[in-house]
Amino acid sequence: MLSGLSFSTIALLMVAGVLLDLWWGEVRRWHPLVGFGNWAIALERRLNQGGMRFSRGVLAWMLAVLPLTALAALLVWALAVPLAQAAAHTLMLYFCLGMRSLRDHNLPIADALANDDLPNARRLTSYIVSRDTTSASEIELTKASAESLLENGNDAVFGTLFWFIIAGGPGAVLFRMANTLDAMWGYRTPRFLQFGCAAARIDDALNYIPARLTALSYVLLAPGLHGKRRAWQCWRAQAPAWDSPNAGPVMSSGAGALGVELGGAAIYHGEVEYRPTLGQGPAAVGADIKRAWRLVARTTALWLAVACTAAALMEYAHA
Predict the structure, then answer these.
(1) What phi and psi values does residue 128 have, to the nearest 5 degrees?
(2) Residue 301 domain-assigned (yes or no)
């Protein structure tokens, strides 16, 4: 392990970090990721102008991510007491996780749709997606929320846990900052096409293995043999049609596991974007948002169970 921690310790700290996230949720004030976002905005405004925008984007990524990752690693190293080091790793993981946030932002949308409150559902959905929701139907709102849950389950939970296993707290920090920069700069617009290219490609690389482990987890947790086969087939057939090499496997397998149809047309920046179909089955409705959340929660439990079981077997083997 790059973190220098034993796998048993890593597994226990993973459980602690997830429990802290579910208990406390996001820090209301002075959240480190919010501060990082403000720093990224300042860097982009300063460097995303003039020529050589790709090179400037690489420089901006390095200035945003590398010093803070090094600071996180230095902090862990400076804390010579093992208990203090464990606490630092756990807090870093907690600040990087977003499982409670996914629940708190998406389940109210399902509740609003259950109460036939479309205006409130549209308002709540607009907080979590960039697509236009001003005149969205229940099906369109459900698609937006369920897709966000499935994809961000990987970005805000499983990818973070993967890199925590690899490199402890600093690994989680590195991954979440890279993922945040992709969300901020990784657009194919005239402003970000060159400048954000490095951020998008680095996030693709860091997310490549976690995304496929997430997709496999969604397949394994699909109900019944038929559901598992459907999720696998959707992954293999539909993922290549998506521009994102990581969102495709995650969302297609997740939609297949749920047995609903996602994807399709959506309005971005006033223009209709026709996206490939995800999943197989009837069009998703409001209640499917809670099913998507349960899939993410069960996948988290699966990852923790596998980590703890592996740690126990390793301890037994060395006993």
Answers:
(1) -115, -10
(2) yes
The answer as to whether 2 is a domain residue is no
Report yes or no: 279 and 241 within 8 Å, Cβ to Cβ: no
Give me the residue label for tokens 């907690």.
94
In 3D space, the residue among 182, 186, 232 whose CA is nearest the CA of residue 206 turns out to be 182
pLDDT digits (tens, 9 = 90+) for 34-79: 889 899 999 999 999 988 899 999 999 999 999 999 999 999 999 9
Q: What is the DSSP letter of 284?
A: P
pTM for this one?
Answer: 0.94
Range of the domain at 73: 7-318
Count: domains in the chain = 1
Is there a domain that residue 163 lies in? yes
Residue 49 in tokens: 């102008």
Q: Report d(CA 162, CA 175) in Å as an integer.
A: 9
Q: H-helix or E-strand containing 147?
A: helix 138-153
